[in-house]
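hey
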């Protein structure tokens, strides 16, 4: 009978969206709905969106009330065939809510505190920690132009019985805007120094894009610090890179010019929200931010190509390693993961762009969970 019931859940309108508020229902229980019909208005930060029904059917229940704020994935209502009994609907809703609440409770237990500033040598780094326990910690390294919020859908989920650490690389987010020569090896040395400062002798390392190249340089210079390696759409494995993205990210200074550049990051272009665009514009206006990005781009992508070939570092690693890539990546090519030893699993996610950790968070978290056990 459950195949005749379709849950309507809080959608994810943007990469940074974690919750939304039902401002109004546009249809009443008992109404026949077409797929794609706007059935509710949902308010996120600074904007209200019309929510289109994911399927056709009869709206049997409105579970969420107007004015209620709920996390992404929470049950808003239920579509069901008229033949489905009220008792079956009640049972479906009760089970959905129970399963969802259990997941939310697990997440709540690992909610991270506010980021802190950590002094590492002459640098100040913004650091986010979550979780606790005796298992080997996990550290996340974001990519060019990113920050620790790139891991907002991963860090809590992977914390559990271990500490997880995300941080802003120098030149990014809330960290010092001094980047030295801007090379991955320099960032790797900073990452190692941060681990020492936090008392981490070894960690599972997850790197995204340029952060993947940094993770490989960390492995090269400090192999004893790397317990496992998960590379997401990683730089350092090929030569080609979309310089329209790199140059556009640096030069665009208005929403009209930056938004199409950010579209390169995702398969689903609707995930690039106004808030995300405005946050990046504000970041680039900080003293030293643009100069830092330009230094990194010049060092890492001279002549419009990736400077470093780090595949030998990966192929010589004897520990657990995997590569996760979006099949529709428009920044770095998934073909860069070809020709690796069979011991290195390559996971390709369909209908996914350059940021699988946000577009397909559940799949990425499952893959990382598997390798760090």
């Amino acid at each position: 009978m459950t195949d005749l019931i379709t849950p309507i859940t809080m959608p994810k309108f943007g990469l940074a969206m974690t919750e939304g508020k039902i401002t109004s229902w546009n249809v009443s229980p008992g109404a026949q709905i077409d797929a794609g019909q706007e059935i509710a208005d949902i308010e996120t930060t600074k904007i209200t969106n019309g929510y289109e029904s994911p399927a056709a059917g009869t709206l049997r229940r409105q579970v969420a009330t107007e004015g209620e704020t709920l996390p992404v994935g929470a049950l808003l209502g239920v579509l069901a065939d008229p033949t489905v009994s009220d008792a079956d609907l009640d049972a479906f809703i009760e089970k959905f809510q129970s399963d969802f609440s259990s997941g939310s409770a697990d997440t709540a237990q690992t909610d991270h505190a506010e980021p802190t500033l950590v002094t590492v040598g002459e640098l100040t780094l913004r650091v986010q920690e979550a979780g606790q326990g005796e298992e080997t910690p996990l550290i996340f390294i974001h990519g060019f132009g990113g920050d620790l919020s790139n891991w907002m859908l991963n860090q809590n989920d992977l914390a559990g019985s271990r500490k997880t650490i995300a941080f802003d690389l120098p030149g990014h987010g809330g960290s010092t805007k001094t980047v030295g020569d801007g090379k991955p090896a320099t960032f790797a040395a900073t990452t190692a120094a941060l681990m020492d400062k936090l008392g981490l002798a070894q960690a599972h390392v997850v790197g995204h894009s340029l952060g993947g190249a940094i993770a490989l340089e960390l492995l090269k210079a400090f192999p004893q610090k790397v317990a496992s390696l998960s590379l997401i759409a990683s730089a350092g494995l090929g030569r080609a890179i979309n310089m329209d993205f790199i140059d556009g990210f640096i030069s665009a200074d208005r929403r009209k010019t930056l938004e199409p550049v950010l579209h390169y990051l995702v398969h689903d272009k609707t995930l690039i929200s106004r808030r995300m665009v405005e946050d990046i514009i504000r970041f680039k206006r900080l003293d030293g931010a643009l100069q830092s990005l330009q230094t990194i781009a010049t060092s890492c992508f001279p002549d419009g190509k990736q400077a470093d070939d780090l595949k030998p570092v990966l192929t010589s690693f004897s520990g657990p390693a995997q590569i996760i890539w979006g099949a529709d990546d428009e920044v770095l090519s998934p073909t860069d993961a070809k020709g690796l030893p069979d011991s290195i699993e390559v996971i390709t996610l369909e209908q996914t762009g350059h940021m699988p950790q946000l577009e397909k968070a559940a799949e990425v978290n499952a893959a990382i969970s598997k390798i760090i056990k």
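Residues 104-112 have pLDDT under 50 and may be disordered. DSSP finds eleven helices and 16 strands in the chain.
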